[in-house]
Amino acid sequence: MKLIIVGASGFVATELISQALRRPDVTSLVALSRKPVTAPDGENAAKLKSVVISDYGEYPDDVKKELAGANACIWTVLGLVFRLTPFGTLPVQTVAAAMLDQAVTGFEKEHLGIEDLKRIGAKAIEESGKR
Could you tell me which InterPro entries the record lists for this protein (predicted)? Predict the structure, then answer.
């Protein structure tokens, strides 16, 4: 089985690499990261291939070639690495109310922008005054 671990230089990924290298059913391990990855101490690096990428949003052809034929992928990259969007300034009370509302009622969508936080926070603050 060919396994890809994305974000391979991180703490969790290092343990995943160590365990994957010990498994006989993992025949090839691609460690995709923004910096070179080596096998943890005491592990056999024969089936480990470190692939360095500068942007997880773009995959050059040489990287795609290394990923081809994979049977599984474990993604350990924090979601914020893609694009950070400035939020501007919002009162802490509005942000806190919006986040509490979304934690209790469930997130209405995957990414909340500043306009979403303003709207949700204002509604939550207004409704809390009615109770």
Answer: NAD(P)-bd_dom_sf (IPR036291)
Q: At what angle do helices 92-105 and 114-129 cross, to 10 degrees?
A: 80
Residues 13, 63: one domain? yes
Do 48 and 14 share a structural domain?
Answer: yes
Helix/strand/coil for 74: strand
46 vs 30: CA distance, rounded Å: 11
3-state secondary structure of 47: coil
**How far is it, in rounded angstroms, from Cα 52 to Cα 86?**
28
Q: Give the structural domain span for 77.
A: 2-81
